[in-house]
Design brief:
With 114 residues, the chain is an all-beta fold. The strands form two sheets. It has a six-stranded mixed sheet with strand order 2-10-9-4-5-6, with no helix packed on it. It has no helices and ten strands.
Length: 114
């Protein structure tokens, strides 16, 4: 069974940091480009970042450049998202996803508020 399980979300103050993790199982992790998408309250899905199978190529949405860093550890079948300088606009449910078929996990809530 394919599973993507996100963790690491929570409540953080503006300017703070969080590190999200996504544990993958049930498929060959390094066969896939992986990424993070998010959905803010009342808004549609937005691609945040993705990373190639070997980590050599990355993409960031414009508003995340310089603040977020995506990485992966294929030996551990785990995807990460380091988020710094968080603002209230980053409040959303963050989903780990496979780029090729948009298969997603259940998500982890990130709330940025003072």
């Amino acid at each position: 069974e394919v599973q993507l399980v996100e963790s690491g979300g929570g409540l953080v103050r503006p300017g703070g940091s969080l590190r999200l993790s996504c544990a993958a199982s049930g498929f060959t992790f390094d066969d896939y480009t992986m990424g993070w998408v998010r959905q803010a309250p009342g808004k549609g899905l937005e691609w945040v970042s993705f990373i190639s199978w070997n980590g050599d190529s990355t993409y960031y949405a414009e508003s995340m450049k310089g603040r977020f860093t995506i990485s992966r550890d294929n030996a551990k079948n785990t995807l990460y998202l380091q988020m710094n300088s968080l603002t209230p606009d980053d409040t959303a449910i963050y989903y780990c996803a496979r780029l090729q078929d948009d298969y997603r996990g259940q998500g982890t809530q990130v709330t940025v508020s003072s």
